[in-house]
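Our preliminary data section would be incomplete without showing what the modeling component actually yields. Below, a chain of 808 amino acids is followed by its predicted structure, encoded as tokens that our downstream tools consume directly.
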Amino acid sequence: MSYAGQATRDADFRGPLDVTKAATFVVDDQDMVIGWSPAAQELLGYLPTEIIGRPVGTFLVHDESASPTRPTCESASADQAADASILAYPKRDVHVAVHRDGRRLHLVIAVCHLAGTGAAQRVLVATEVGQLGGWESRLAMLDGLATQSPLGFAIYDTRLRLVWCNAASELELGQPLAEVRGRHADDLYPKGRFVTPGYPDTLHGVMTKVLDSGEPIIDLHFRGQQPSDPGREHLWSCSYYRLQDPDGRVLGVCEDAFDISDRHEAQRQLNLLVEAGRRVGTTLDVIATTDELAAVAVPEFADLVEVDLAAAVLGGEVPEGGDPAGSELVRTASRSAASGGPAYSAESARRQPRPVEYAIDSPQHRSLASGGLVLEDDTLVVPLRAGGSPLGLVTFVRRVGSGIFDRAAVAVADELAARAAVSIDNARRYTRERNAALALQRQLLPQYLPPNSAVEVAHRYLPTDDLSGVGGDWFDVIPLSGARVGLVVGDVVGHGLHAAATMGRLRTTVRALAPMDLPPDELLKRLDDLVGQSAEAGADAPDASADDDVAAGATCLYAVYDPVSRRCTMARAGHLPPAVVEPGGHVTFPDLPAGPPLGLGGLPFESLEVELPVGSLLALFTDGLVELRDRDIDKGLETLGKVLSEDSGPLEDLCDRVISELLPGSTTTDDTALLLVRTRELDSRRVAVWTLPAEPVSAGRARELVAGRLSDWGLDELVFSTELIVSELITNAVRYADGLLHLRLIRDRTLVCEVADASHTAPHLRHSADDDEGGRGLLIVAQLVLRWGTRYTREGKTIWTEQALPSD
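Predicted structure:
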């Protein structure tokens, strides 16, 4: 500050009655003016020659109406006078003065009686009433700072000893100034420290820095216990500046401090709620959500947090009867400030939830029973409820010295629990829906593929919709007659439950058509017709939308592998062709006619038949495996072929390698299905084939051939039934067909017996009347076998049966 500015401020606080600036005149014992100052001349207009020697009544008239209306200096307390000498003025009165030009002025006049001998007996110091008002306001401000201000003021000398403090500082210290005057600053707050980065952490260090540099330090945060309130840690906002006289001599340091503990706590709790909104509920996982709640609250709000949920909540349900007190509770999260992390990890809770029980007189049990929060000493228990549904409870614990759970803290805990409960309930609802979706998916996709003699299989399924865990792709392995197997992979447009439901319809339809032993192209034609009919029927519905039936546009690949002939016949409806890997590692993608996607109609489907060496590998897959946003299908097919050609190990390991190479991190933008198939062969040791003429004697010959082969196979127990079966089938073929007959036995997981002829006439199972001479053959056959049926080829038909093998 400039010297002129400092002088002006000093004059302001000396006041308008200061003799250096106010109108001053001296009178003798006869009230004659014997002295007149320039300020008096300026105020009243009289020159010294005009007024000196004249009575004071010439310009000063006592007016009763102008009696004093403000307290005089005698009304100030002795302490105030001692600590603020600017108040120590003589008695003041208000008078009316007459200006030289006749105007009347209201003046405040202070009279100072002079000691000693001489003509001068009194000095009158005068100023206008208006000027005195502003000065007294400043005095009132100083008095308020000293006695009423909530802002603590203290003055320390150059040795950092307390010299003076106001009433607010006395309250914080818990002692009057007289008892703490002269004590060192660090002794007054022995356990306190500054927590503002970049500054010393002690009072001594900060004040020394101010004394040495002369630069003020503003808004440092000081944390410690208030001597008058030792059970609670407080936070002050402190500022320091150096005191010095007009000559620049350093007098000490002034401190102003304001207790911002409540404000800081309120802001901290508000920040806690904001942080909870950001960090709690980031996943739709019930256990992870409770752990997020505990992580947010420790150590900012409590030293220990434990979250217990009703066991039913983990499964996506609410406690039976809506009463968590009567249901099993499990610990899902626990965090402690002492351990610095989770005392009970989310992984542990998810792997093996820990049951908890509370005594009847515990605050937790009382909270569960009443449905409300319970506060007991340093423990606060808050129920977790969402939409009226009880979910569990959360327990907050504070150690001694961390502060009690006051009304504001209880309100924060209630709000924190309410927000967390909404997230927990969302996770619970998602868990329930996801469990339902996964149950649906388990019904729609094969979870277990029974072993068969035709192929070895392995598979993977990766839905894009991680939330529901379901998608529209599918695969299947369908046992067919004659030890053959049907291989299916398909892709429905879209993702999620809608696509999964459509996929289930298509898979069920394929499973219904496959046992009819239709050629692959014919099966796809019938599937296409059904999809087209369904789309037309759905379009006519009054509330139909464009997304109601996503079956239209779905793709499918269907293949049939025969382990006896080692031939694989396949057809596709808009789907990618399979990869075929020969035992030597050579990879091809058969030039299989694409065909239209399902439901479009108008174009035929075509089949392709290939012969596969034993041990060949077929990879059936959907486009999600080979096509990504940053990778086209050709590149994906190239990578797939490379991986398949380099690995001849177990199919499960190969599945994992394919997924890791083509979908690193399982980051797929489309549902993905992969079915790997390694072919096997049923050779002459397990297959017997004979050709017989269509003559009656062939039945007997067939019985002989079958009996001999079954004896060779050690299946003598099946000789009688098998002779009866082949005799009936050969007899029917001779009766209704021409040309050669083909008899085949296959020893697989069942005993398969087949009779093929050139006729396309289907046999019918019927009940014969008592007087019928025939017609009971197929009825007898049906009672002897596990199952039987007919399949058709271009050359005719084949009637087949399966019998269970004798147990070992």
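The chain has a mean pLDDT of 83. Residues 132 and 178 are 33 Å apart (CA to CA). Preliminary results of this kind motivate Aim 1 of the renewal.
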